[in-house]
Amino acid sequence: MNDFNVMLVDDEGEFLDTLVKRLKKRNLNALGVRSGEEALTTLKNNPVDVVVLDVKMPGMDGIETLKQIKKLCPLVEVIMLTGHANMEVAIEGMELGAFDYLMKPMEIDELLYKLQDAFKKKQLHESKIDSVEEELGPKR
Amino acid sequence: MAKILDFFRKIKKIAHRDELSSASAEELRNAFKARYHNFQLLLSANNKTLELMSEMEQALHGNQPFGMSFIRANCTAISVNVFRIIKNLDQLAPNKYKDLYERFRIIQEQINLVLSKKKQTQGEHLILPFSMVDKNLADQVGSKMANVGEVKNQLELRVPEGFVITSLGYERFFAHNDLQSEIDRRLQASEVEQLDQLYALSADIQQLIIRSTVPEDLETAIKEAYRALEKVSGAGCKVSMRSSALGEDAAGTSFAGQYRSQLNVSADNLIEAYKEIVASKYSLQAISYRLNRGILDEDVAMCVGCMVMVNAVAGGVTYSRNPLNIRDDSIFINSVWGLPKSVVDGSVASDLFVVSREEPLTIVRRDIKVKEHKFVCYPEEGVCRMDVTGDSHTRASLEDHQVMELADMALKLEEYYGGPQDIEWAVDPNGDIFVLQCRPLIQSEGTDKRFQTLDRLVVDGKVLLEGGATASPGVASGPVFVVTRNSDTLQFPRGAVLVIPQALPRAAALLNRAVAVITEQGSVAGHLANVAREFGVPAIFGIPHVTELLKSGDIVTVDADGLRVYEDRVESLLTKAQPKKNLMEGSQVYDILQEVMTWINPLHLLDPDSLDFKAKNCRTYHDITRFSHEKSVKEMFNFGSEHHFSERASKQLVCDVPMLWWVINLDDGFKEDVEGKFVQLDNIMSIPMLALWEGIVAVPWEGPPPVDAKGFMSVLLEATANPALDPSMPSPYANRNYFMVSKNFCSLSSRFGFHFCTIETLVGDRPNENYVSFQLKGGAADFQRRLRRASFVGSILEEFGFRAEIKEDGVFSRLEGYDQEYMKEKLKIVGYLIMHTRQLDMIMSNDASYHHHRAKLMNDIQTVVIGSPPEPSSGVHAE
Fold this sequence. Notes:
- The structure holds two protein chains of two kinds.
- Chain A is of the alpha/beta class.
- Chain A has five helices and five strands, in the order βαβαβαβαβα.
- The N and C termini of chain A lie far apart (33 Å).
- Chain B folds into five domains: 25-116 and 614-637, no CATH class; 122-309, ATP-grasp fold, A domain (Dna Ligase, domain 1); 310-436, 2-Layer Sandwich (D-amino Acid Aminotransferase, Chain A, domain 1), CATH 3.30.470.20; 448-574, Phosphohistidine domain (Glucose Oxidase, domain 1); 650-865, no CATH class.
- Residues 11-19, 447-457, 720-734 and 869-879 of chain B have low confidence and may be disordered.
């Protein structure tokens, strides 16, 4: 159930490292990057199913990163995870297609469930598209 | 993105085709899966929303303190989850309920408006000299410094020269380092209920502030103001720096004296001292105090007063009236050698002079203590504690004429301010008295009355200790917890009696947890006593060796009025104790939550059959949640029945319960797919459905209870008066029972004649997502009898751990967060109840019958339903 790829994006190094470690212990393929820019580069070269994205980062912020991710890989699900409870930013993120907006501190198991739900959504999306492609077959 | 949308459109088309190729059967299967997943996500967001709502509701009614970060985090989380509900519903039924987005936006804007009401900073000065300060500038310099200016400029009492670093200065400093958002983040990330976390948080934030840089313009302004002081008071003059916070006077609070002060600061350290005082806004006791009193963090701007240091020979605090007794108008003067510091922090016993205010003023009491230490200024910087030498430690620290001068001063200030005052002062080497600060005094109700009655009252408890002074009146009982080291404070349990050697201000952080306080030393004029009175925590100060005489864990009763500590609980005393007040109520933070809640909690869309049950009528988040949930269940149900897709069509359950049961498999609820119209029970994989079913068949139903003539008439009348209750009316659920199931999910909509019931439940491997929601509504008898049936069922559910709410003739109950086995047991009870409580409304006029049936039901549940579970297949056989 945990056999999928997660990328965590957070400028807070200590938090990032701990989280990656804890998710790996739960058999997830987790990798961490420190900025929005780095996230986009990584996305181009690595298989990623779900992104956990900090909202407030220096350089490219979370909302902008979300927009770019959705442009680049629309099927990748994005969970926003932040220490700043900001209702407007939260709703903006949701409107841009984020799967959920979570606040620190977060129980690791709860985050894991969210990741599983998001991954399942992505899978269902993909199988829909696969079967449509099959149906449309030679036309495409 | 467009490409994907295109795909979706095609899927929809395919999904609507009636004749299916095997490839499109696979698609439809996928479409079902996707829909079911959407439905699951909707339900999980729905549950989260309900949970958050009840948490916020609890905050309004409970005694737990909460801050803005609680409100902000919860409003954000609830908005996100309501949005998720709408989005998932929109995916189940594209565009059908799009009005919800509009409703959501309107509600969210209103909430945002409440949350973002911000105080405007007043004024344009980073620095204001005392000569320009009076009470009208309280929102620029804080009330403490506004008073100092007022006393100096209007009353013309002797006050040292100085200046204030204003609230604008504070905001410049915070904005320059973007401190507020970082602090908010850290506050949000901590469990403020955990003392050790709060402690770490406090240390962190203070470090953060101290490491920040003061912007250049502010630094220059401070240094210039200091140079101006040097011109008046001599080059290299030392200053005291004191906090003067904004926004704390609102609720009659007594915290002002609490933040850090720095005494005898030299020119070199002005900036460092400034930062340290600002940082003390986040001391442990200050954070917990604001939390407990519901004071907005961002409203508290720390202004800092900078005052030329008085090299005090003696100093102290005057109360213009007895702080402990509202009926006593004598003037109380507490005095020590050296700086007044040790009166305020309670570290040294102080002399007490009581002056009667009747003309001519007379000293009616002199209580001269042994003063072993005093605080004095170092020549270079800082203060030190020195032993008091010679005979002065037993000598009065004030001359009589100084006592009289102080009393006179107190009367003047009281008259000017029109209320009792708390005045800190110092006597310089020339014998001149300077006012250092002055603020309103909060008096306690007093104890005279209780005292008199108590003297005659024989208290039936064993007295362990006696003596000391009442620092805060009242009686309370709890286990002793002795705090001798700072680290002990982190283990302090809620509801304990705090026993501590000295009445140090930092112990104030424990007062929201302590039921009473006993100290060996400390002044009833000190800060800890003030806060204890404000929080209504009984306190006795000055029982020698109490930290050795009492042991942690001993249960005692503290009678702060009678100055006695009793062994164990003494009920006769405790019954007289005042209940602890909810300090949050009426605070700004409390008001904000209350206002926000008006957009979240009230439910207006109660009846799904009503014409008003529409998306555009949703006025609160709760409305949206309720509406969307109802519609999502309907959409799920319809999708299955609208498609001629045998696998997902409803199947009739083969069983010998004399009713029709239909089952729709949402996903993985069947062991294997079935063609045709029937499904056998042993093909059902749904964990929650099977548990429910066990309860349904546990005890055979004996048929409707015998009804008296009146009850029967009541049924007839109701049926003729209310055609909507006619069971022959067409309705998707009419007289049938529908299960929608997957392996871990089950929803049952059931209608037995006039009785409607809905069960929705998720039972899986994630305990925190497991839930049962059970609603029972309607009935055939008149409204009174239906009401009694509702409360009858509600009371049984509550007995088994459900939260049940009765609204009109409906019971709405929930239970969540337990593991599979526990949930299954509760589902059995629910299954049993839906079979055996229908038609009970008819006999609900009769008390004897009510109790008889309750006893029978409880007995069935205890012995048959959960006592010895029958075999899963019992009562059911295949056809």
